[in-house]
Fold:
Amino acid sequence: MPRQANRTGAGTSTGASKGAGKRAVTVTDIARAAGVSRATVSLVLRGSPLVHADTRARVHAELQRQRYVYNRAAANLRRRTSTIVALVINDLSNPFFAEFAAGVDEALGEQGYVTLLGNTGESPQRQQAVLASLMEHAPAGLILSPAEHSEAAQLRAVVGVGSHVLLFNREPAGQPWDFLALDNAHGAQLATAHLIALGHRDIAFFGGHADSSSCQQRRAGYAAAMAAAGMEVQGRRMIECAPNRPEAAAQAQALFAGADRPTAAVCYNDNVALGLMLGLAARGIQPGRDFSVTGFDDIPEAALSTPALTTLAVDPRARGRQAAQLLLQRIAAPEASPARSIAPVVLRVRQSSAPPPF
Amino acid sequence: MPRQANRTGAGTSTGASKGAGKRAVTVTDIARAAGVSRATVSLVLRGSPLVHADTRARVHAELQRQRYVYNRAAANLRRRTSTIVALVINDLSNPFFAEFAAGVDEALGEQGYVTLLGNTGESPQRQQAVLASLMEHAPAGLILSPAEHSEAAQLRAVVGVGSHVLLFNREPAGQPWDFLALDNAHGAQLATAHLIALGHRDIAFFGGHADSSSCQQRRAGYAAAMAAAGMEVQGRRMIECAPNRPEAAAQAQALFAGADRPTAAVCYNDNVALGLMLGLAARGIQPGRDFSVTGFDDIPEAALSTPALTTLAVDPRARGRQAAQLLLQRIAAPEASPARSIAPVVLRVRQSSAPPPF
DNA sequence: CTGAAAGCGCTTACAG
DNA sequence: CTGAAAGCGCTTACAG
Structure:
C-alpha cells in the first residue's frame, strides 16, 4: 500500500531523461529513427540472433546516437521478473555488516542484479517499515539480517509467503526460510581449546546476552571444549554484558569478584574482548601476559590493538557473497527445501593469548 | 542497454507474489472482489478524498483480505516518477562511508524514497559499470561519492545530462553538479592552531596523497594556520603516504630524517595518525608525551586508542542525511543553479596532543 | 528476418 | 462519487 511518498512529489524526471522535464528516449524513438518496428529494437537490445546483422548495426548506431537508456523497470514489469534484491541490515554502522553488505552487492552485481538497501538500526519497528517499503519494489528476493528481537510472524506478514528470503546471522523462529550463520559453536570451541592447550584451567566466558542465539551457541562451544578436556563449567564463570566496549570494560570486575580468579576469558566478540582488555589494563592487569583473552569476528582493529587480539576470523565479505549466492540458488529453485548453511570460522592466534602466569 | 542479467533467468516470481509461480494480487483482483472499478481502487490506494467512505472501507477490507502489495514500479512507470535514489559509494568497508550510507538511507526512507546501493571499491571501471546498471532503474537522483581518479567526462556520459546528481567528498572536475564536502581546510587549520596554542613551533603535515583534493585542502588549512602564527611552512615537513595504518607506521622515520625534528604532526586522517603513533612507539617515542599527533574523521577508534587521539569530528551519519536532503532539494527545484555545501567539522581534543617536551 | 497487437500493473483525465 | 479508456516503456507470441 502506498506510504508517505505520495505527497513528496517524488521527482518528475527519471534518471534516463535527457533534460530536466524532457521525456526519456524510448524504443519507439529508436524504432522510428532506424526505420524498424519496436519489436525489432527490443530484439536487438536483448541480443537476439534473429535480427539481420545490418539491421542490428543500424539500430545500435541509433541507440548510441540518441543515448538510449534501457528502462529495466518497464522490462521487468512486462516480463514479470525482477533484477532487484532487497538487502536489509540490522546495523550498517558495524564494520562487520558493512563488509557483509559490500560482499552481497558485489556478488549480486556480477549476476546482473541490483541491491535495494535498508538499514534497521536493530529496531524491529523500523524493520517492518523498511521491509514494507522495499517489498513494494517487487524484489526477486530478500537477504535479511534481522534486528534483535524480531518476531517471525511479523516478518512473515510483511514479507509474504511467496517471497524468496535468506536469513543471515539470526533466525527469529521456525519459518521455512533459508538461513546462513557463522559456526558459532565451533568457533568458541576452537578458542577455548586453544586456551586449554596453552595451559589454562580456569577459563571464563565473557560477554553477550544469554538470550541471543549466537551467544547461546558460542557458550555451547565453550562448554563442549571444556567438557572434552574434562573440565567443569561453572555458572559464575558465565558473565553477561552488552556487546560493546564500554560495557565490557565496566564488567571486567565481575571476573575478579570471588576468591579464586580465572586466568583467561573467551569473549563473545572482538568488541567485548577489546573492552575487557581496557578494563583489565585499568586494573593493572596486563592482557596477554597476566591474563589471556580471545575475541570473535576479527574486525580490523583486532590485529592492531595492543596486545593484538587472538580471535576467530569470519570473513564478512565472503559471507556476503555466499548469502547472495544462496539467495540466487533459491530463486532458481523455488521448490527446493529450505537450506541451512554454516560458514566456517578460523582461529587467528595473536599476542592476547599466552600461557597462564604462575 | 541490457547487460549480463539477460541470461541469468532472474527470478520468475516477484516479492509480491503469493506463492512461488502464482500471480501477484493486483488492483484488478481487488476491484472485482469489491465490486468497483480499478480506478476506484487506485484512488483508495492513493488516499483520495473523492471516494465515498463506505466504498473506501469496502476496498480497504478487500486489500487486507487478499494481502495486496502495491507495485510501486508499475505506478512509477505510469506516473513517470521515481521513488528510487541511487547511492554509489567508493568504499563501503570504510566505517566513515558505511555510516554516511546509513545516514543517506535513513533520511531518504523518511521521505518515502528507497536506496539503490552500489559500491565501487575505489575502482573507476567498476564505478562505470555500477552507474550504468543503476541508471537503468530510472532513479529520481544519484548520490555519488566518487572513486579516486574518476573522470568527469566518463561520469557525465554514463549518468546523462538530465539526471539529478549530488557529489560527496570528491569533485572530479567542472561538471555543474551539486557538491557536498567536509570543511577540510578549516579542520586542518583548527588542528594546527591547537598545536600552536599548546606551544609547538615545528609542526609537520603527515600523510595523504598530494594529488588528492582533500589532501590539498587540508594542507592549505595547515599552511594558513602556520602563516597566521607567523611561522614558515617547509617543504620537507610535508610528508606523503597512503592513507592507511601500515604505510603511516612505516613512514614515521621520514619525520626524523633531518638534523632538527618536528615536535608535532597534523595527520591527513585518523588512520594515518593511528599508524604514525604505532610507528612512533616502535621508535621509543611516546605519542602524547614526546610528540603530539592529530587526526581527521573521529572514527570510533580515535577515542579508544592509547593515547586517545585528538581529531576532527565530521559526523558521517549527519553528512549522509544532509546529502539526502540536498539531493531532494535538487529534485524539487531542477533549475536552481548548482549548490556547493561545506559541512562543518569540530575539533575534539584528547591526550595525543600536549605541550611540547623540553 | 520483421511487424502488428496485446498486455505487465498501475494512474489519470474525461464523462456521467 | 464512480467507470471506461488510454497509456507509461517494454516484451512476446503470432503472422507473414
